[in-house]
Amino acid sequence: MRHYLQALNEKQQEAVLHSGSPLLILAGAGSGKTRVITTKIAYLIEEKKVDPRSILAVTFTNKAANEMKSRVLDMVSTESDIMIRTFHSFGAWLLRRNSHLLNLAPHFTIFDDDDSLRLVKTIMGKGVKVSYCKYFLSKIKQAKNECLSYNDSELANNEEDRFLEVYRNYQTRLESMGNADFGDLLSRSVELLRNNPAVRDRYRSRFTTILVDEFQDSNLAQLYLLKELYSPGHYLCVVGDEDQSIYSFRGAEVRNILDFDKMFPDTTIVRLEQNYRSGSNILQAAGSVVSCNRDRLGKTLWTSNPPGELIDLFMANNEDEEARYCAGVLSDGGLSHTAICYRNNYQSRAFESLFSKLNIPYKIVGSVRFYEREEVKDVLAYLYFMLNPKDEISFKRIINKPSRGLGEK
Q: If you write DSSP's letter for every residue of 394-406 in order, what string do you get?
């Protein structure tokens, strides 16, 4: 047995060695799911002699994709041509190779939220509140997450008249520039495969083994893309945990994982329930809370770790009292291994104010991302415009930067 298989527990080995039918791995928190999926990829290449080019592994963040690829390459003996990407990165890869079929520019620009909002504001005209523009943009995102175009009957019966007009103008303008937004990377990939059977069959022949990580976070567009790529007789493995599905506000659809065995017949379900991260006190408390969830496939996490300290629950009357309590806990030291989590960025104010007064050192995590900084987006807009002179959003961003004394007229 390979050394990387010996390091796995019985259920992890079962998941890695499984073959044939579709596989759903229900991986509880801290149960080693990344180890399982990367070991499974290595096992397919080393033991089953699967062509690395025929393997497609998708996840949700670049960091996760890079970590997955690094772990696989540590286990396989040769450089691997396996494709490990995020869903959106794979969509971009697919669209760039078939841009001519969708009237996309060969070097199309991918609009981020700021670019998309600028386009919506341009369409809606002067005097319209930014919040109203953001509302319409969120509705456009939601529609694309469900692969609904502006002329889809489902939207026509349920949306405001102005929304359909804005959505139509937005998509028409976007396509006239030959560009795409993040939603298009998925919805237009589905469109490409649905409307071009020869293209779909080519990629089905290429990717005969498909693995998906964090499947509980998938939306409908990602599910539809998976269905277009999967062909019966090929191998499909998804890993996820319905109890960790928290991104419905971003379009994630928990039914994707709950109904997976209904959508893909003869599915095998393997549950990873041994937790390696936490003490039993933490697991019992978390298990008691999540057991109240109405929709779940069910699992019971356990651990061989020590119980650990008991959980303290403090009920504060306001944010200032909460900050004072945390400062008191920190008075005994241990700053370097302490984290304070809050739900919204504005909630850091009470902690920052008090900690500054008490000379408690702290570091705020989650500031503006590098590629969202204004000066970086300005430079990128120049590069986008050089590649695609039809890109009016990039043009409007750069035409008066640095200031050239140009007004609206």
A: HHHHHTTSS----
